[in-house]
Amino acid sequence: MTLKSNLKNILLVIFTTLLLSACSTAKKSGVIDGDVYTGKDTVEYLAAGVPDRVFFATNKSSLTTASRATLRKQATFLRKNKNLNVVIEGHADERGTREYNLALGERRANAARDYLMTYGISGKRLSVISYGKEKPVNAKSSPISWSQNRRSVTVKVN
Amino acid sequence: MKKIIYILLINIFFVNSLSALIEVDITRGNLDPLPIAISPLHVDIKSEKYKDLNVKDLGDKISEIIEKNFRNTGLFNPLKKDAFVQKPDIAHLKPRFEDWRLIKAQALVTGKLLISGEKLKVEFRLWDLAAAQEMTALAFTTTPSNWRRVAHIISDKIYERLTGEEGYFDTRIIYVAESGPKTQRIKKLAIMDQDGFNTKYLTLGNELVLTPRFNPTNQMVTYMSYFRNMPRVYLLDIETGSQEVVGNFPGMTFAPRFSPDGKKIIMSFAKDGNSDIFTMDLETRLVERITEHSSIDTSPSFSPDGKFIAFNSDRSGLQQIYVMRSDGSNVKRITFGKGIYGTPVWSPRGDLIAFTKMHKGKFFIGVMRVDGTGERLLTENYYQEAPSWSPNGRVLVFYRETKSGTKGEGFSAKLWSIDITGYNERRLLTKTDASDPSWSSLLSK
User: Fold this and answer.
1) Contacting residues of A for B318, CB less than 8 Å apart
2) DSSP state letter for B319
3) Largest Cα–Cα distance of chain B, in whole Å?
4) If you average pLDDT over residues B418-440, what whole number do you get?
5) Nearest to B16 by CA among B134, B125, B177
6) What is the Cα–Cα distance from A81 to B305, expressed in whole angstroms?
7) What is the DSSP string of B84-98?
């Protein structure tokens, strides 16, 4: 056995172990941290390295550290693209009453908007719409799916 | 949209004022429903043809609708017709009471109909079999195409006579008809008779529509629409189909309802992450702010006397139900139980508030007194919300969504009803998936 193939095997083992551990923890904490989705499954990008969405905890509209980092990237991107306007969509999961969720979606979208504004983006470029629980991105009824649906998404309008 | 049709009540020729011997207690879940025989209506042989109506079968069909209405109340047990002992025309003249008692019926409904000169004339009688006497008799004349409503009106009259309370059969339900996958639902406003017939769609499904609610005369509907991606409260005239945005708010308006006099719409307006409650007077266009709080205030509902408003707010942290005066003063939290509370709806009698409760991953529909005491949970499920009252305050209609599977399959949304006793839970049949039901008041009073 050559050293090379030995190394390869070791790497394979390490890689498999990592994969397995990722699978086993995915449901607990791998992609959800304190009820907030941290994975990338549903995320799209406004530009390379600029995620379009941030996620929220159940019934909450506060921004996590990760969400703020994402929004700072969006702010940088928007500063570079001065003629671009966006609409920030606020969404809720299916586990609340419809009317409350409309309000909650609006509050989430505004949390994202306010943060972008503190990073110098004019409010005129940032409109807001709430869809409540009406437009889930993931149709499953599971905690992970709900965490993906509790989101605000920044969408280019021009 | 079809015109609201007025049924001419031409003749109340006999109403027995003697004390009724039959009494149906509707305040408790009825485990011993009253046996009632509903005879087919006799069709007068002089009846003329009318359009494509099968006149010969009309007597049977009307009695079947009455029978179904009564079975659905859970309070009555309509007996099988094959045990009936008398021909409809003879029974209608005067039943042989002892024969009907033999099949264990306690009440009997008989009737006859005649179509003549493009008019449908129907009469019916309600008989107390134990006392061997007539309790009520009525005759109606209307246009023959209105025959289903005749059956519902007769049902209401019988229900009223036997229970002492107003009926709820000659009513409609407006709701949101749903189709398509969960992530791309198509939603349309739909209206149907309370028994699921005569479904009509009021919007085409081009834009998302939510939460339709009738005004007190059932001619107008207020609802929320995403027309042109501007989520706003709208007003729709069912008869003319004309629609307009309610107010000129610089942001989302939602959760609309009419005031009990029909003059105002109460709703939430969301701006800068905060939702508060406003009213707009439909005549003067005057907008009034009712709540001013940094929390989410929504799902407002007036008391039937218009003096109070129930709503839900997360000012305490999570959604709870509050009651205030209609000017926004004197706000009081009324729910302190375990869980989250939403969608308060004041009963038409004014004595109860129906609500949705969320606790430990389950959704409940319940009722409580207007001060928050006496909470009773009527039904528990994976997801259900948005109760709406029958006009007599005895039944709630709401919608229920099922859990979807690991691939998102198996999702459905359906309308259900339950008595405020907690008994008699039933699915309301709709042509498509359905949500956000709102029950009309009685169409003919």
Assistant:
1) 59
2) -
3) 73
4) 96
5) B134
6) 56
7) --S-HHHHHH---HH
Cβ contact B385–A106 (<8 Å): no
Q: Which of helix, strand or coil describes residue B224?
A: strand
Q: Which of B208, B404, B438 to mutate to test the interface with A (most CBs of A within 10 A)?
A: B404
Which CATH number does B172-439 carry? 2.120.10.30
In this predicted complex, what is the ipTM?
Answer: 0.92
Q: Mutation test of the interface with chain B: which of A61, A87, A88, A98, choosing the one with the most B Cβ atoms within 10 A?
A: A98
Beta strand B209-214 with A126-132: parallel, antiparallel or unpaired?
unpaired
pLDDT greater than 50 at residue A33: yes
Chain A contact set for B404 (CB, 8 A):
139-141
CA A61 from chain centre, in angstroms, equals 13
CATH 2.120.10.30 in chain B: give the residue spans.
172-439
CATH number of A32-156: 3.30.1330.60
Average pLDDT, chain B: 93
SS3 at position B351: coil
The residue of A56, A63, A99, A129 whose CB has the most chain B CBs within 10 angstroms, and thus the best one to mutate to test that interface, is A99
| Contact status of B408 with chain A (Cβ, < 8 Å) | yes
Interatomic CA distance for residues B272 and A112, integer angstroms: 11
Q: Which of A97, A140, A141 sits opposite B343 (nearest CB)?
A: A97
Q: Where in chain B is the domain with CATH 3.40.50.10070?
A: 8-163
| CA distances in angstroms from B122 to B11, B139, B151, listed in the order given | 11, 6, 9
* Count of Cβ atoms closer than 10 Å to residue A156 Cβ: 13
- Among A30-34, B120-124, B205-209, the range scoring the smallest mean pLDDT is A30-34
Asked if B177 contacts B185 with a C-beta cutoff of 8 angstroms, the reply is no
Residue B135 burial (C-beta neighbours within 10 Å; 0-12, 13-18, 19+): buried
Instruction: Give the separation between CA B212 and CA B437, rounded to whole angstroms.
Output: 7
* Residue count (chain B): 445
Q: Report chain A residues whose CB lies below 8 A from the CB of B182.
A: 136, 139
Instruction: Tell me the per-residue pLDDT of B77-111, one tens digit each, with 9 for 90 and over.
Output: 999 999 998 999 999 999 999 999 999 999 999 99
CB pairs under 8 A between A and B: 108
- Return d(Cα B377, Cα B420) in angstroms, integer: 9
Separation of alpha carbons B93 and B231, rounded Å:
59
pTM of the complete model: 0.91
Q: Which residue has the tokens 């309301």?
A: B428
pLDDT tens-digit map of A77-129: 999 999 999 999 999 999 999 999 999 999 999 999 999 999 999 999 999 99
Confirm or reject contact between B182 and chain A (CB < 8 A). yes
CATH top-level class of B8-163: alpha beta
> Chain B contacts of A144, Cβ < 8 Å?
none
d(CA B390, CA B392): 5
Give residues with Cβ within 8 angstroms of B246, minimum separation 6. Answer: B222, B232, B233, B234, B235, B253, B256, B265, B267, B280, B282
